[in-house]
Automatic annotation (TrEMBL), chains A, B:
Pfam families in alphabetical order: TetR_C_11, TetR_N
Keywords: DNA-binding, Transcription, Transcription regulation
Stored InterPro entries: DNA-bd_HTH_TetR-type_CS (IPR023772), Homeodomain-like_sf (IPR009057), HTH-type_TetR-like_transc_reg (IPR050109), HTH_TetR (IPR001647), Tet_transcr_reg_TetR-rel_C_sf (IPR036271), TetR_C (IPR011075)
Originating species: Labilithrix luteola
Domain HTH tetR-type: 1-55
DNA-binding region: 18-37
Family matches, as Gene3D superfamilies: Homeodomain-like, Tetracycline Repressor, domain 2
Gene Ontology molecular functions: DNA-binding transcription factor activity; transcription cis-regulatory region binding
Protein name listed in UniProt: Transcriptional regulator, TetR family
Keyword Transcription among UniProt keywords: yes
Length: 184, 184
């Protein structure tokens, strides 16, 4: 059922998504769907949650730069599939639906926990300067990948991803991402 | 007519957009609309083009960093309006329509010309290292802003925008954005 939900979300988006269609696709009676997931938001949340749990696991290679490179490559691999691309686009364009927006936010916050902790550890251990704005570093990296893919239609190679990470990490290492900037 | 087109695009998006509704809104007979803009793509293209021409003009302050800060602030100001936000979101989510995708691409390429030339000049004059990947720098900056706004729901302050530009420019200045990276 969750599998059919993801397929249908990728196909038609959240607005046009109907629980009846999904029940039909999965060969399940709709009352048994409603019993388990009373609303469209419940069903969508459960399906996206399962997908998020099984992907984008943050690695621990011993170096924050290569951890982040791995994370970005995994995200790139998701974008390379038709379903992944449609789901990420749906989440980016979620504007009109506050309930989808709330779902996406809670998923994102869960998924950000691990990379944020790793970046905070890197700051604590001196791999990145004290005062580095971890949230800004993360959203600059993810934003660069999303922009490259959704706006420039480029699915970045491994080499290109390294370059993106170097650009942002070199900036962070020289203090560019600090909240309060020392005079230069 | 172009004004009514932008309002309607922001309201319903490209998919649901109808030339009849716009003609009605603008108090114009639909045949006179079709005479000038035979298709929905023609009308949308003309309206977005006019909007793009009047906004996001790249400044020349003498320093590439402050030019880019100004550009990012202007983009932020567009996102701060309901219409600008809806139009940018529509362009980001343009996936299902190849004709809208083609329009958005051609607009984007026109608008990127000036910042790209300015960045290339900065490389030529030694403000940025030789070999800096200008396209990557630009899409990292714009991507960071889009991610912060559309994913994290943060409309960045002037200070925050400076910080974003510092992060990316410090990285570029230390060679992080170079296509071929010197061994460290």
């Amino acid at each position: 059922m969750l599998e059919a939900t993801l397929e249908e979300l990728a196909r038609v988006g959240y607005g046009a998504f109907s629980m009846e269609t999904v029940a039909e696709r999965a060969g399940v009676h709709k009352t048994s769907v409603y019993r388990r997931w009373p609303t469209k938001a419940d069903l969508t949340g459960a399906a996206l949650q399962r997908e998020a749990d099984s992907t984008l696991c943050f690695p621990d290679t011993g170096s924050i730069r290569s951890d982040v490179v791995s994370m970005m490559r995994e995200f790139r691999n998701i974008l390379a599939t038709h379903r992944g691309q449609s789901l990420v686009r749906m989440m980016l364009a979620e504007g009109p639906s506050p309930e989808l927006a709330a779902l996406v936010d809670s998923l994102r916050k869960k998924k950000e926990k691990e990379p944020k902790q790793a970046l905070a550890r890197a700051v604590a251990q001196g791999e990145l300067p004290a005062g580095t704005d971890i949230e800004l570093v993360l959203c600059t990296l993810i934003g660069a990948l999303q922009n490259l893919y959704f706006v420039h239609h480029e699915l970045p190679t491994d080499r290109r991803i390294e370059q993106m990470v170097n650009l942002v990490f070199d900036g962070a290492c020289s203090g560019g991402g600090c909240r309060v900037r020392a005079a230069k």
